[in-house]
């Protein structure tokens, strides 16, 4: 894995690389079994006791459930140093967790995107901050 | 519960960005509604106001601002926000106040001035407001959410790019016949298919922009006002729905959705429409005109299914067979829809009700649906907001 020491997520508690693998951070309710992303996006089953919500890391890999190709720059407060349009955006399904999560796709050959293909979690460098750190977001790329 | 009638409606025609303030637009719509109802301002016993979220203190207290323009009379003024279903909330509150006997005559209104450029996050607290995450980290403008669902639909049901384009062709034909629409140019299938992708598979002409507009509806149970009104329209039901656990739709501003469906798609609209069918005793088979929220061509198709006008995956066939045309079995969006108007958040749900009322009152000229007796206005708002109003004459 590339050097992650000088990277910082633009918003904390969404993507983790402390284990040596890039993975999304969420939560699981042990009462109703529902997974949440982001972890504050509670989506309890009605009548759930809401007891035993714990932080989890999602698996690194999932399957592409849908995607689109965005042709126009996303308006502020989105910000990237380099032009990234057109860019892919995917919904990646984590089967055991029964959840689909959105994310920018770092693939540049957008013709290769196909529903069902295997994807892995990665990061996208957005810009350099005043402390000379690379500010990043989570993203997905095809498993090669 | 008493029967409640629409006796007056008014709009300010839809347009792009304006330097004028929202209250100016609201006043035009309300003036028109008062004239249509043939009543004086003092007859209004309650104001249910849709708020204008980009209007600061004034926008958040839009009802008070409007009341001061027409003259303060001490009546209840409630300001409400339910995203794009805000107008549904305001007319529902007006209806309930009258049906319950609290007031006899009430005004529901909404006005919105299109922001310059895009709608984006309104706070900077990512823990509290996940909208901040989707804008700062997600790179997710609204149409992407629709495109992600549209792609799933194409894969699952074989919806084609021609189907998506055909929606715009129909909407632009009707919009060209609507003097109050913002976009009046008529498009051919070829022109739509040649328009650029915004987010593949959705093209520029297949999604609606934000607009400026205002709408006002006066409802009453006062027998005297009903008897002197021009073709009063009965409200059979006006409801609101929220989402149901397990709805697989990726909702605007969310970063995730359930992978295993345990509820219908767009469950907030499923909820609102089923409540309306039950309350009114009117079912989809009885509806002569449907105004649905065609924020994109995908919405046009999926809403026919969500609201029970056909089974899942059959909307494309309804479109291809011409069933949704004026003159077809179920004319859809004879107004030209959002495609010809654009979204004016707090006004649009009321504008849909007004189009239905105008159709039932036979006021729609070149886009008139002949002999319509029952009409339904269906809205869609982000994060699980929806409303349904069923009307008859
Ligand atoms: Zn739970």
Strand-helix topology:
The complex is a heterodimer of chains A (about 140) and B (about 400).
Chain A: E1 7-9, E2 15-16, E3 23-29, E4 35-36, E5 53-57, E6 61-70, E7 87-94, E8 99-105, E9 118-128, E10 134-142
Parallel strand pairs in A: 1-10, 8-10
Antiparallel strand pairs in A: 2-3, 3-4, 3-5, 6-7, 6-9, 7-8, 9-10
Chain B: E1 5-15, H1 22-37, E2 47-50, H2 56-60, H3 62-70, E3 77-80, H4 86-99, E4 105-112, H5 130-138, H6 142-157, H7 161-175, H8 189-194, E5 197-200, E6 202-203, E7 212-220, H9 223-228, E8 233-241, E9 256-258, H10 267-280, E10 289-291, H11 297-306, H12 315-320, H13 337-341, H14 345-360, E11 374-378, E12 386-392
Parallel strand pairs in B: 2-3, 2-4, 10-11
Antiparallel strand pairs in B: 1-7, 1-8, 4-7, 5-6, 8-12, 11-12
Helix pairs in contact in B: 4-14
Bound molecules: zinc ion (ZN).
The site of zinc ion has 8 residues of chain A, from loops.
Secondary structure category of chain A:
mainly beta
| Strand ordering within the main sheet of chain B | 3-2-4-7-1-8-12-11-10
> How far is the first residue's CA from the last residue's CA of chain A?
15 Å
> What is the overall pLDDT average of chain A?
95
Helix content of chain A: under 10%
How many beta strands in the DSSP annotation of chain B?
Answer: 12
Order of secondary-structure elements of chain B: EHEHHEHEHHHHEEEHEEHEHHHHEE
List the bound ligands. zinc ion
Going by CATH, the homologous superfamily of the largest domain in chain B would be Thiolase/Chalcone synthase
User: Termini of chain B, distance in Å?
Assistant: 19 Å
- Number of DSSP helical runs of chain A: 0
Number of strands of chain A: 10
Mean pLDDT of chain B: 96
Pfam family, one (chain A): OB_ChsH2_C
Protein name (chain B): Acetyl-CoA acetyltransferase
Keywords (chain B): Transferase
Pfam families (chain B): Thiolase_C_1 (PF22691), Thiolase_N (PF00108)
């Amino acid at each position: 894995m590339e050097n992650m020491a000088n990277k910082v997520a633009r918003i904390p508690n969404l993507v983790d690389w402390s284990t040596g693998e890039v993975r999304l951070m969420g939560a699981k309710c042990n009462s109703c079994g529902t997974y949440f992303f982001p972890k504050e996006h509670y989506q309890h089953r009605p009548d759930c006791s809401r007891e035993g919500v714990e932080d989890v890391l999602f698996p690194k890999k999932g399957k592409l459930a849908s995607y689109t190709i965005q042709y126009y720059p996303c308006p502020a407060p989105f910000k990237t140093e380099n032009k990234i349009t057109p860019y892919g955006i995917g919904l990646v399904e984590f089967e055991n967790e029964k959840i689909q999560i959105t994310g920018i796709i770092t693939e540049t050959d957008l013709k290769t995107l196909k529903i069902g293909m295997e994807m892995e979690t990665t990061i996208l460098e957005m810009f350099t901050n005043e402390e000379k750190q690379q500010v990043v977001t989570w993203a997905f790329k095809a498993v090669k | 519960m008493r029967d409640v009638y629409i006796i007056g409606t008014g709009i300010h025609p839809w347009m792009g960005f304006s330097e004028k303030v929202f209250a100016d637009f609201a006043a035009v719509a309300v003036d028109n509604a008062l004239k249509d109802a043939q009543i004086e301002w003092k007859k209004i016993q309650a104001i249910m106001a849709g708020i204008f979220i980009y209007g600061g203190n004034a926008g958040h207290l839009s009802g008070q601002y409007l009341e001061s323009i027409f003259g303060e009379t001490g009546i209840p003024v409630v300001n409400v926000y339910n995203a794009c279903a805000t107008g549904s909330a305001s007319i529902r509150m007006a209806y309930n106040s009258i049906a319950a006997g609290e007031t006899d005559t009430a005004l529901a209104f909404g006005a919105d001035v299109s922001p310059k450029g895009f709608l984006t996050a309104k706070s900077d607290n990512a823990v509290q407001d996940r909208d901040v995450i989707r804008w700062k980290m997600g790179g997710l403008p609204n149409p992407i959410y629709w495109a992600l669902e549209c792609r799933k639909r194409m894969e699952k049901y074989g919806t084609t790019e021609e189907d998506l384009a055909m929606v715009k062709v129909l909407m632009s034909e009707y919009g060209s016949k609507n003097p109050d629409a913002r976009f009046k140019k008529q498009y051919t299938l070829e022109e739509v298919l040649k328009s650029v992708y915004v987010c593949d598979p959705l093209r520029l002409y297949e999604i609606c922009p934000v607009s400026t507009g205002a709408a006002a509806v006066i409802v009453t149970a006062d027998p005297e006002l009903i008897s002197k009104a021009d073709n009063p329209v009965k409200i059979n039901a006006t409801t609101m729905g929220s989402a149901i656990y397990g709805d697989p739709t990726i909702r605007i501003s969310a970063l995730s959705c359930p992978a295993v469906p345990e509820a219908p798609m767009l469950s907030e609209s499923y909820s609102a429409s089923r409540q309306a069918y039950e309350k009114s005793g009117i079912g989809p088979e009885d509806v002569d005109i449907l105004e649905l929220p065609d924020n994109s061509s995908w919405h046009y198709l999926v809403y026919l299914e969500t609201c029970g006008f056909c089974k899942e995956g059959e909307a494309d066939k309804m479109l291809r067979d011409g069933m949704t045309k004026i003159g077809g079995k179920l004319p859809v969006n004879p107004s030209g829809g959002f495609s010809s108007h654009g979204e004016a958040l707090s006004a649009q749900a009321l504008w849909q009700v007004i189009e239905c009322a105008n159709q039932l009152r036979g006021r729609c000229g070149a886009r008139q649906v002949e002999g319509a007796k029952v009409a339904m206005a269906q809205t869609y708002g982000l994060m699980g907001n929806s409303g349904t109003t069923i009307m008859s004459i």
